[in-house]
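Researcher: Go.
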Amino acid sequence: VQLQAFGGGLVQPGGSLRLSCAASGFAFSSYAMSWYRQAPGQARDAVATITTSGDTAYANSVKGRFTISRDNAKNTVSLQMIDLKPEDTGVYYCYRLSGALWGQGTQVTVSS
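Model: Structure:
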């Protein structure tokens, strides 16, 4: 049972990145999934959530810029990020809400 996130990197302000998280070992389609972000020296905060039926919710700071999606056939949850800002910098984690399963995190750095 694991979650593996990938797709992070260094991007300039205003740029875009797409994060993906591959799930294995459990019935992915039966679980709501989230992306969390942890900035240096700060707590880990929820960024976006998608339910089993595809309903989504976002932190106010990313609304209109981030889009969470899922592909149940491929057991993946993704986070499309546009118009990135320096304050979006942090380690991004995918998270299975039920059972509190965390992925290993992927670093996103927004800097010129």
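Model: The chain has a mean pLDDT of 96.
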